[in-house]
């Protein structure tokens, strides 16, 4: 990438100078009588402009101006400009005497004015070198800033992912523990199902995004796992898209909402209900969960809230302006809706 960028910059410089050197000749229409004037008034000063530009662009601007050594930067440029003006005068006298003869006879502009014009013209390549070098430094700084921000983002996401997996595994082990005495055969089946879920967690969620169909399959297996430990008094309804689609989504984006529903929406004494629905509208995923609201007591540490906190952080990092998460309680039912634009 760096080599490619350097080639583009070199090509840009070459084309820019080629245009500057070609224009005077093209405007002269190739007339031999005007060619000497073109060389004297355009090509010779352009050579000096180019030398002065690259002295500043490659050395003086970075070495002196950007390091606060402004006095030396101005001094070296004044010395270079003075040498170029003197050298141009010698070249004009040796090779273009006929072109500048009228000026010597008093028909040209005053010598002082001619000197001022030359000084001003030599300032242009210096200013162009400063502007171009400043722009390149800004672009490089901005690129480094974006790379640093991206590294920080990936680090934070990786931390959140590692935080989520042990949390999920801990909750699943609690479910299996409750089945060991009640139904050993179901406990064995649950361990087998848990192995499949953990395989997905460990190997298929390393990508930034996964197919939505795989994520739905993971959610359905998790729901089946959770249903093994709840009583018949709890009604669980799911409605997920069955048709295959090409949508990609960040892995483990919806699992915390389902975990939260089983954690806070199931009661051993009262009838419970959990309703989960996912709709796809164009490139937007709309996931809703409704369950009975059975708030945990302050002494109950099973509802630590790590999953939802994790989800909110991940949404801010992955979908900063492309998500909407709403939570509310209505008539004893807890509602949560997550919309994500993929």
Automatic annotation (TrEMBL):
Keyword set, alphabetical order = Kinase, Membrane, Transferase, Transmembrane, Transmembrane helix
Enumerate the InterPro entries for this protein. Bact_2-comp_sensor_kinase, HATPase_C_sf, Sig_transdc_His_kin_internal
Q: Which GO terms describe its cellular component?
A: membrane
Q: Which residues form the Signal transduction histidine kinase internal region domain?
A: 155-232
Q: Which GO terms describe its molecular function?
A: phosphorelay sensor kinase activity
Annotated transmembrane regions: 7-26, 46-66, 73-95, 115-132
The name on file for this protein is: Histidine kinase
- What organism is listed for this UniProt entry? Euzebyella marina
Query: Where is the organism placed in the taxonomic lineage, from the top?
Result: Bacteria, Pseudomonadati, Bacteroidota, Flavobacteriia, Flavobacteriales
């Amino acid at each position: 990438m760096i080599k490619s960028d350097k080639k583009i910059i070199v090509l840009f410089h070459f084309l820019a100078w080629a245009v500057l050197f070609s224009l005077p000749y093209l405007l002269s229409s190739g007339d031999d009588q005007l060619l000497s004037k073109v060389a004297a008034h355009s090509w010779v000063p352009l050579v000096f402009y180019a030398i002065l530009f690259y002295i500043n662009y490659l050395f003086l601007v970075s070495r002196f101006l950007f390091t606060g050594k402004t006095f030396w930067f101005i001094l070296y440029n004044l010395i270079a400009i003075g040498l170029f003006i003197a050298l141009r005068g010698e070249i004009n006298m040796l090779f273009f005497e006929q072109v500048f003869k009228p000026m010597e006879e008093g028909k040209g502009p005053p010598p002082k004015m001619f000197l001022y014009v030359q000084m001003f013209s030599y300032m242009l390549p210096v200013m162009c070198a400063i502007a171009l070098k400043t722009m390149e430094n800004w672009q490089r700084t901005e690129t480094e800033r974006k790379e640093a921000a991206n590294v920080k983002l990936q680090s934070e996401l990786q931390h959140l992912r590692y935080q989520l997996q042990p949390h999920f595994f801990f909750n699943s082990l609690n479910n299996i523990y409750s089945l060991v005495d009640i139904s050993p055969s179901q406990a064995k089946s649950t361990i087998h199902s848990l192995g499949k879920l953990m395989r997905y967690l460990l190997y298929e969620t390393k990508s930034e995004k996964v197919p939505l169909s795989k994520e739905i399959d993971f959610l359905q297996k998790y729901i089946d796992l959770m249903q093994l430990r709840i009583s018949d008094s709890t009604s669980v309804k799911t409605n997920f898209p069955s048709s295959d689609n090409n949508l990609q989504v960040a892995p483990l984006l919806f699992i915390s909402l389902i975990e939260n529903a089983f954690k806070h929406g199931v009661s051993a004494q009262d009838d419970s209900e959990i309703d989960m629905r996912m709709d796809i509208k164009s490139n937007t995923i709309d996931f809703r969960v409704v369950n009975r609201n059975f708030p945990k007591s302050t002494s109950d540490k099973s509802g630590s809230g790590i999953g939802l906190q994790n989800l909110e952080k991940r949404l801010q990092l992955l979908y900063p302006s492309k998500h909407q998460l709403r939570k509310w309680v209505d008539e004893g039912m807890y509602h949560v809706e997550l919309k994500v634009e993929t």
